[in-house]
Amino acid sequence: MILDRFERPLRSLRVSVTDRCNLRCQYCMPETDYVWLPRDNVLSFEEIGRIVDAFTETGVDRVRLTGGEPLLRRDLPRLVEALAARSAIHDLALTTNGVLLMQHAHALKLAGLHRITVSLDTLDPHRFATLTRFDEHRAVMAGIDAAASVGFRSLKIDSVVIRGVNDGELVDLLEYGRHVGAEVRFIEYMDVGGATRWTPEAVVSRREMLRALESRFGPVVPVAEETSAPADRYALPDGTVFGIISSTTEPFCASCDRSRLTADGMWLMCLYAKAGTDFRRPLRAGATQEELVQLIRTMWSLRADRGAEERLASERRLPLIPLAALKKDAHLEMHTRGG
Ligand code: SAM
Ligand code: SF4
Ligand code: SF4
Q1: Does the beta carbon of 25 sit less than 6 angstroms from any atom of ligand 2?
Q2: From CA 304, how far away is CA 7, in angstroms rounded?
């Protein structure tokens, strides 16, 4: 196990398998056009496997596949199968917008995927279309049904809460989650790269969310647990458990053991990082496994990132990256980083 400068171990890796997406969520991809990663730079499954092996050698045992939209990557179950066969990976998960999930849920389960998280911010098809710019609500709901019936170890629904957009739907989303057997997690709207329309006023804090839920359900109690998971979990009086990810108003950088690999092999040690470490070049230049492992050890031991805490401390909070800078470097975008 390796520790960074704040004694945080490296345990978890999010692997983005594509930067392309079939939605355009307002809080992630609000613009009309985008700069994409060159296709030749996108890692093959074999290259991803080699990099993941280097990470597991340093102590990573949790891997999450993400995007862009990961189900747009052709033959994704083949990658899932290859990763599921690695005994060093104890937790293999996927985050998806669910649009293509109905077609793929069964194959993903067969390939050995453990857990699945579907992003769904609203139960209203019109609001969904406004929020994502695509009329795919029905497909996502069918995808969630398919994932529920296939029976993954866990099924979660992640909802970004935005004031004046879907903040009136917390209760309905929780009830929907209970109905389909999914744990709902509410995410505070973050000022990450790509969120060019972000304003502090649009953020609904964890405190406000709890207040809204308590006024409907009665006292909500925290679920006591020792984990580095980003969501704090709570239980309703009837036992229903849900999570809140309070990255914006109460960040949890002190226990952050996560990092992310973009589809073209850029390793980012923080969601807010402005630069990363390129793995594609050394890999394609013939680096040995030992050299990749050493690169991870060196860079992680230098890590001092605490991006969300620094953002919280900044006086006048505006979107993180100006649009002109985003247009020059796709790596700065949330949809490239995978969330
Ligand atoms: N396309 C897939 C999906 O939407 O689930 C995977 C990639 S997406 C970038 C991963 C997660 O990031 C999603 O749950 C999404 O809601 C979240 N996300 C994107 N932009 C965000 C923002 N500005 N604030 C909070 N969460 C955000
Ligand atoms: Fe929405 Fe995910 Fe696509 Fe971003 S990457 S636009 S959050 S579906
Ligand atoms: Fe980890 Fe960076 Fe997020 Fe803080 S802001 S929790 S250091 S990824």
Answers
A1: yes
A2: 10
Is 6 a member of any domain?
Answer: no
Ligand 3 shell residues, CB under 6 Å = 251-253, 256, 258, 270-272, 305-308
**Nearest to residue 159, comparing CAs of 146, 170, 144?**
170
Strands 221-222 and 115-119: unpaired
With 0.85 as the threshold, say if the pTM is over it.
yes
Domain-located, residue 299? no
Count up the domains in the chain and report the number: 1
Ordered alpha helix ranges (H), the chain? 45-57, 76-84, 101-111, 125-132, 137-150, 170-180, 206-217, 280-284, 289-301, 307-313, 323-328, 334-337
Task: Classify 249 as helix, strand or coil.
Answer: coil
CA angle 103, 78, 104 (to 5 degrees): 10
CATH number, domain with residue 57: 3.20.20.70
Considering only CA atoms, which residue is closest to atom 6 of ligand 3?
253
Residue the block writes with tokens 């004046």 = 164
What separation in Å is there between the alpha carbon of 217 and the centre of ligand 3?
32
Q: Which ligand is nearest to the CA of 190?
A: 1
Asked if residue 292 belongs to a domain, the reply is no
C-alpha 144/C-alpha 199 separation (Å) is 30
Domain that holds residue 191: 12-278+305-337
Residue 73 lies in a domain: yes
The answer to whether the CB of 17 falls within 8 A of the CB of 79 is yes
Residues 148 and 262: their CA atoms lie apart, in Å, by 28
Section 270-291 average pLDDT:
97
In sequence order, the 6+-apart residues with CB closer than 8 A to the CB of 314 are none
Residue with the nearest Cα to atom 3 of ligand 3? Answer: 271
Q: What is the tens place of the pLDDT at every residue in 213-260?
A: 999 999 999 998 877 777 899 999 999 999 999 999 999 999 999 999
Ligand 2 contacts CB of residue 72 (under 6 A): no
